[in-house]
Amino acid sequence: MGALDYLSNFCSVNSSSTRHRRRAMQTVEIRVKMDCDGCERRVKSAVDSIRGVRSVEVNRKQSRVVVNGYVDPHKVLKKVKSTGKKAEFWPYIPQHLVYYPHSSQAYDKKAPAGYVRNVPQAFPTVNSSAPEERMMSIFSDDNVNACSVM
Fold this sequence. Notes:
Elements: H1 3-10, E1 26-32, H2 37-48, E2 53-59, E3 64-69, H3 73-81, E4 87-89, E5 92-94, E6 115-117, H4 131-138, H5 146-149
Antiparallel strand pairs: 1-3, 1-4, 2-3, 5-6
């Protein structure tokens, strides 16, 4: 967008403005199975061609593509799928953020080291805290009913 385009937005005769709102800066993480350098280059060049992309990081070992920029996540996913590769949004989160990383749905053998699947079963429910925290609060000095338990 040049300087003349920028100034013409302020000097327009029309009462209805045709200015476009810029998308928010986003980080989109996608899981793509890549086997060789050619696959990696093809995916990176396809994502680089999207308007608004600022940076692309490809990690073939983790099968992960990280895109930063003013982009729509679904358009990025569609563009990656157009290369012929199977792609999905990154389904993993770091293991240290989860209460129950070894629950049956969260633990995934295919996940990179230090990551588990992002599933609701890995987190405690909203109305109750983690069982370890409840057991520790029974004998706490802050608990007013601790004397009755002992």
